[in-house]
Protein 1
Amino acid sequence: MANPVAQTQIDITWSASTDNFILDGYVLLRDGSPIATTTLTTYMDTGLTASTSYTYEVYAFDSFLNISTTSNALSTTTLAVPVVPPTPTSTATSASTAT
């Protein structure tokens, strides 16, 4: 699962891999390039660009240099920068009264 949580952050989670040897960890790919190696099944990808689509994949590896097949690709988009409406400006008008 890839969950955009901020304009510059996507949180990624995946299911644990099973291995007949001792699993050493996971490699997380963003847009086809490795960005992290971890023993966890979660990762907070930060420093991203707002309103931008990213694709993630992960694979597992063990201490015997066996690697799993790469997971299915999962794409999501970071949150957009909020649009702040302009602050209304008021112009003071002076009314003159004739007497």
Protein 2
Amino acid sequence: MRDAARPFDVTAPATPRIERVLSPFRTFTSTAAASGILLFAATVVALIWANSPWRDSYTDLWASKLSIQAGEYGLEMTLSHWINDGLMVVFFFVVGLEIKREVLVGELASLRQAALPIVAAFGGAVVPAGIYLALNAGTNAERGWGVPMATDIAFALGVLAIVGSRVPIGLKVFLTALAIVDDLIAVLVIAFAYTESVAWEYLLGGLAVLALAFVLNWLHVIRPVAYAFLGVVMWLMFVKSGVHATIAGVLMAIAIPARTRIDTVEFLNRGRSLLADFEAASAPGSSILTNKDHQSALYELETTTEQAQSPMQRLEHVLHPWVAFLIVPLFALANAGVALDERIGEALTGPIGLGVILGLLIGKQVGITLTALVMTRFGLASLPEGVTMRHIYAVSWIAGIGFTMSLFVAELAFTDEVHLATIKTGVLVASTIAGLVGFVLMRLVARPGATE
């Protein structure tokens, strides 16, 4: 017998076919290690392809030209450059959003809280660069000093995720904050060390567009489409300016509003009122498709929800899956394919490859562990709860996974194909060793009963 208090039965509809099809994919993408797994798969495919009998098709594909034309104005680049200078702008935009969030409300919000990962990140960047320069200073390969400075956040967090729940949450927070500061350092290195000539008229034009974005922020404009339009214009200006276009992504991220239009109390009041209106409009046999009161309440609820979210958080939430599961793997597919015949020998014995390998493996260990030890011993910072120096040392190995950012800097540093292939091989070798050793060490220190 139907409950008289309910005007009609609400029967849960059968799960749509598309939901059943997408369910395994959603389960995979919801895991912390998923993006690292996909990135690893793209790297393996690139290496197999570049070392197969079809290696010429790999080179030809990424060297193919694509152009966008609007009247007499146009932009032509290779497919590889469209990925590195175009799609990777979105990657750097998300990096910028993450940096801004951490500075405002995250682990970098207070100096005391941020001191340890900030100093550790600088130590983990300066020492590897110093090792590389010690082996290559005065040669035509010294421009590669920025390559071993970076940490790949997707791979690094993926390793911790594979170790499992035994990893202290404080260690995950520390590694995330360290990797974000590491990304900021890499952005500064790209901006100042790998910009050779500047077309000031285009740069000033791009900065003027950025200023306009800040004005929109000040006016409380929260529509992402407005910032998207300005972002594209700014990107075009930076492409023409000589300053690497990915810097435009980081700068535009800083201009994205972090405020909301309504606070928590107002959202709750509006939401309850609108849900009450929706319920009052319900009738037996009614359908949302035909009930105008339902549609009006839903539209208002959607608007209210948007006003309670900051554009910064909304954009990061929307773009992160695209970056993690499409853009970065595509970047790896386009850039990780190197011929491994004689390159392995050169990478293991030559100063270029050794500079990268020793920088990522030894430099990261020394830089991160030593600075963390000094900071804690002198009382300048404290380790996160449940974290020991053994954990920090294991993380210093994991931070030696340079990959995405290292490959990106390598593309900026070298145009010579021989040097580029050697340095990429060094990155792949070092990142593989760092990931495997870091995983083993983390398993050992995270086991039950392990103490400092």
Protein 3
Amino acid sequence: MVTVVINGKMEVQSIKIDPEIINRDDPEMLETLVAAAVNEATRKAQDLVREKMGELTGGIDIPGLTS
């Protein structure tokens, strides 16, 4: 319904909203869906950054870099 793309710098690259979910009488639902999509995209981007940094550091946890 709502898709958000975020890069490794946690910058929003795009937001796509299915027109069928837009309801002028219930803007709160759309706001909730957008917030949830942004949070999910951020979590996935952070997970991917941790995974890639783990590969680069050989699994060593470097505070501030991988966590």
Protein 4
Amino acid sequence: MTNIPANLKYTKEHEWALVEGDTVTIGITDFAQSALGDIVFLEVPEVGSEVKTGTTFGVVESIKSVSDLYAPVTGEVIASNSDVEGSPEKINSDAYGSWLIKVKIKDTADLNNLLTSAQYQEFCNTSH
């Protein structure tokens, strides 16, 4: 059983989003890190960069594959987690504690397109 915290929102690309006012903290889900296997490389945008909903904002590489990361919202990157970027294997041990970037959201309507934990669980159960 995959860990899917109820306080987060999710994308079908397996990113999670923690919404706090107009700031959205973004990471990859436990399901994603499990499917990827041992994560060996991570690339995320610099602070000040713009990200756009549904477009690539970074790359995560594991011993199995390379996967693009997709922005769940549009906005400006206000923080990036250099600790996790320097030690990407932390995502494998704590997917929800190892956030990637924080975005100041441009339009809160973007949040309407995200999945609840129950919807994401259902998606994970039916997407294999």
